[in-house]
Design goal:
By secondary structure, the protein is mainly beta. It has no helices and seven strands. The protein has strands at residues 3-10, 16-19, 22-26, 29-34, 38-44, 51-56, 63-66. It has a four-stranded antiparallel β-sheet with strand order 3-2-5-6, with no helix packed on it. Strands 4-1-7 form a three-stranded mixed β-sheet, with no helix packed on it. It starts with a strand and ends in a 5-residue tail after the last strand. The model has no long low-confidence stretch (mean pLDDT 96).
Length: 71
């Protein structure tokens, strides 16, 4: 499967990004992954609830933008 870049971002501000449990950096972030790979995403930001989801990497969707809720 081909390796592609997927952009993970927030509608507003920046958050720490965890990919499969590993802290990989801050948003906006370009994540390299293989098509068909499932990745557990967690976003953490002071004053906000952690946001967790899973994405399946596809060549059709290369941008993911999330909204976080204040605590």
């Amino acid at each position: 499967n081909e390796l592609i870049e997927v952009k993970i971002d927030l509608i507003e501000g920046s958050a720490e990004l965890f990919s499969n449990g590993e802290n990989v950096g801050k948003t906006p972030y370009l994540l390299k992954a293989r098509v068909g790979e499932k990745i557990d995403i967690k976003l953490r930001r002071d004053g906000y609830k952690d946001y967790e989801t899973q994405i399946e990497v596809s060549s059709r969707k290369k941008f993911y933008t999330f909204a976080m809720q204040k605590q």
